[in-house]
Design a protein that fits this description.
EC 5.4.4.2; Anthranilate synthase; globular; eleven-stranded antiparallel β-sheet; binds the ligand C=C(O[C@H]1C=CC=C(C(=O)O)[C@@H]1O)C(=O)O; single chain; about 25% helix; alpha+beta
Length: about 400
Amino acid sequence: MSTLPLTATLVRTRAVPDPGPLVGRLPGAGGLAWVRRGDGLVAWGEAARLEVSGPDRFAEAARWWREVCATILVDDPVGLPGTGAVALGSFAFGDDDGTRSVLVLPRVVLGRRGGRAWLTTVGDAPEADAVPEPVAAPVGVVYGEGAVSPVRYEEAVAEAVRLIAASPLEKVVLARDLLAVAEQPVDPRWLLGRLATRYPACWTFAVDGLVGATPELLVRLERGLVTSRVLAGTIRRTGDDDRDLVLAASLARSSKDLEEHEYAVRSVADALAPHCTGMNVPETPFVLHLPNVMHLATDVAAVAADRSSSLELAAALHPTAAVCGTPRDLALAAIDRLEGLDRGRYAGPVGWVDATGAGEWGIALRSAALDPDDPRRLTLYAGCGIVAGSDPEAELAESQAKLVPMRDALGA
Ligand SMILES: C=C(O[C@H]1C=CC=C(C(=O)O)[C@@H]1O)C(=O)O
């Protein structure tokens, strides 16, 4: 499905005074967001929208975005990445499950970056003056089992370890889910506010009912520079800083986690190579400290060598071994056979692209999907990379730690 009523529509960007916390400016529950450390984009209203599914979803979205950009007129004296026409989107993890991927050209975008702020409007956009409705905390949240119970998850991990021992499969990422039900519809703005405050190092997002704070940047393209933050290999935090430092050191030496991490870095470097030159891949990962977990992390950087947009680069990268496995085809088959979960848009690319192709796409982790038919209900997701040395009980505990950001945001 595509709506494109944009003939000769004017997109205007204007510098504005500092708007304060971006998430606080979203007028209602249905807004879009991509924020980190106070910078980013919030957006509302819809001037055009694309919904796609299937293996060609990225190619169709990239084509649609080119068409949109060729149709509109732009007046943008600010000229930063994310000014002028910008679309926010979220894509399904899988090729075949029929999940809807979306790309939206909002009517209003409020952005901030490095001390500069701007407002972009598409057409008349009376929505630009909308006064935010009050935001209420979720009430009476209770949890129920999702499609994959904890016991089933441990069994799937054990089966994956056996498969790795008996076949050329080296790594597979298996996920599980948790159902949350509140007494009233949950307002994503509440979740965004909590996530952005507690997880400033993460990219906090909301697109079409998918809300989260991901620590993993699939790709950023800006002024010809391509960057990616690759994560894989995790240890839970204890809350005791001294103990956590010891654990961070053990994570940095853990051969199981280093192996898991190396697969993910390789998959990113290999997928970017055809599109880039001068790639820098640090030999040793650093330890990223988040409030709930610590991860092995590698920041990859390269120079763009072709005209691929950030969305096309995200398409080339997805799914990396941080959310799929190695080799990719065997890992996808193992996920299909062992996971027992409809991932929907969890672990798919989420982010934004502008008319120059610049943009940022994260991997939709540490996230929850609101039920479109009943916004009191959310499905939370978490997955873990399984390699030869994985232990089912430890992986279940790790998945629980990865659910903490969304559980905390829900306040229960
Ligand atoms: C698949 C998830 O995390 C990935 C990213 C970082 C570390 C991971 C790990 O150590 O298993 C996962 O590869 C998730 O949070 O649902």
